[in-house]
Amino acid sequence: MSITGIVRNAFLPRQKELERHTMEAETLQQDVLRYLLAKAKNTEYGRNHLFAATKGYDDFARNTPINSYEELKDDIDRMRHGEADILWPGTVKWYAKSSGTTNDKSKFIPVSDDGLRNLHYKGGKDVVALYLRNNPKSRMFDGKGLILGGSHAPNYNLRDSLVGDLSAILIENINPLANLVRVPKKQTALLSDFEVKRDRIAQETIGKNITNLSGVPSWMLSVLTRVMEISGKTHLEEVWNNIEVFFHGGVAFTPYRSQYEQLITKPDMHYMETYNASEGFFGIQSTPDDKAMMLMLDYGVFYEFIPMDEFGSENPNIVPLWGIETGRNYAMVISTSCGLWRYVLGDTVSFTQKNPYKFIITGRTKSFINAFGEELIVDNAEKGLAYACKETGAEVSEYTAAPVFMDDKAKCRHQWLIEFAKRPDSMERFATLLDSKLQELNSDYEAKRYKDITLQHLEIVEARTGLFNTWLKMKGKLGGQHKIPRLNNSREHIDQLLNLNSAG
User: Fold this and answer.
1) Residues 6+ apart with CB under 8 A from 199
2) What count of Cα atoms within 13 Å lies in the side-chain half-sphere of residue 444?
3) Three-state secondary structure of 379-404
4) Going edge to edge, which strands form the sheet with 395-404?
5) pLDDT tens profile 445-503
6) What mean pLDDT is reported for the chain?
7) Could you tell me which of 40, 34, 35 has the C-alpha nearest to residue 87?
8) Residues facing residue 419 across a β-bridge
9) Integer Cα distance of 371 and 438 in angstroms
10) Residue 375: other Cβ atoms inside 10 A
């Protein structure tokens, strides 16, 4: 029997337990809420919001306000300075640094010991449990996993307290036994200079039996490109004969899929999406033939949802999981065992089914274009680009888009800055196909495009190779979990990028 065959048995009880997500979703979530309230009732936040007297969801929603990071950041800063029992019991020593996708100001997300166990590591184990369930012939544990990580730094010089990328926190605290089945070595994984790290990872892994990859698609692709350069091979399976799966998350996979399929040509290569953020681990693609992810309900995360057509209104109709409607766009709100209470995560989702609850990520609450009432979201953009690429043979590496409010001819439009891995056969045709697909996908966009009255045909500006990475490097955000802002209602980011693009 292979090593994977032996390890597989350890996941059988959890595979059975996950069946509760199908028939007992509300019960699982009610159990999580009771756990969170009981655990945090004696914290400062719990006392201020009557957690000890809270009997159920209605009391919780009535006594606890909806919070953005701004509402919690003073308490988080006190925690970072060593104060205990503020948002979560005890002292929290780890903080995941996140800048989001539309805000340059850093956020510091507390990562408690309970959160490490119940949110992040539990999610990682379930990814493996579900993958092994779906792939009985897997041999992934007969080799090693290439796991990309970020870096960390001291937190206010407090002893044993660190701040950094979530991936670095996970690597720092991982069970030492896991190091037997993962690469690169810890010192390499935690390097802060991504370009140096990328080269060292390639050098360390070329001679290894790599069976699985885990990381953000954009950064992983950069590492694999370097592996190919050093090895001189054409396809990745020539370097790692037994490669079988890429566990990906952090950004949408759609823009990168065709590049991976050209790089890895073996027909039995698997791709499995995960939804893991600095704030927690929320979703896993549980079946290979369904791109929607299953919402994970027993991780110490209680979920609520705000309909996006009510987001920002004075009294939105906030609902728990059992109150959602399929096909509706929601902003996700979470309460977690890291001390985030009714926290607006910033991501938007749409549920495709119930029992089990499955969803797709549709975008960000701040990553959209609605300058003229068109309500364009990231999900529209990803699908539109995928269609235009398919029809023109193009491949997109990176992109961002923003409105042109009025040019010298009093015309308004969307401007797309796109870095192509492979240029389309016709840039004009690519733009036309993208524009028409967006109209097909989004009735508001279609209405504003009607006869070019409100919104004119979109414009595409081709970015030079490496532009987006150069921009991230200038901002000190190359590598790790930093992301390109896809859609923005302002021109702050795109103007910076256009100026850099023009400068060559």
Assistant:
1) 226
2) 12
3) HHHHHHHHHHHHHHCCEEEEEEEEEE
4) 395-404, 413-422, 459-462
5) 887 888 887 789 999 999 999 999 999 888 877 765 567 889 988 898 999 999 999 98
6) 91
7) 40
8) 398
9) 16
10) 17
| pLDDT band at residue 103 under the 50/70/90 scheme | very low
Q: How far apart are CA 34 and CA 318, in angstroms?
A: 19
Q: Which two tokens stand for residue 81?
A: 């300075």
Q: Which of 3, 300, 15 is nearest to 177 (CA)?
A: 3
For residues 324 and 330, the answer to whether their CB atoms sit within 8 Å is yes
Spatial distance between the Cα atoms of 339 and 94, rounded to a whole number of angstroms: 12
- Other CB atoms within a 10 A radius of the CB of residue 197 amount to 24
CB-CB contact of 386 with 326 (8 Å): no
Which residues does residue 79 pair with via DSSP β-bridges, in sequence order? none
Give residue 419's pLDDT: 96
Q: HEC string of 276-345?
A: EECCEEEEECCCCCCCCEEECCCCCEEEEEEECCCCCCCCCCCEEHHHCCCCCEEEEEEEECCCCCCEEE
Residue keyed to tokens 């007992």: 24
CA dihedral 344, 345, 350, 353 (to 10 degrees): -100
Q: Tell me the backbone φ, ψ of residue 383, rounded to 5 degrees.
A: -70, -40
Q: What is the pLDDT of residues 143-179, one digit of tens each?
A: 999 998 878 888 887 888 888 888 888 888 888 777 7
Residue for token digits 């069976």? 211
**Region of residue 156 (phi > 0: left; psi between -120 and 50: alpha; otherwise: beta):** left
- How far apart CA 365 and CA 381 sit, in angstroms, is 15
Average pLDDT score over residue span 200-208? 95
Q: How far apart, in whole angstroms, are the C-alpha atoms of residue 312 and residue 318?
A: 12
Length reported for the chain? 504
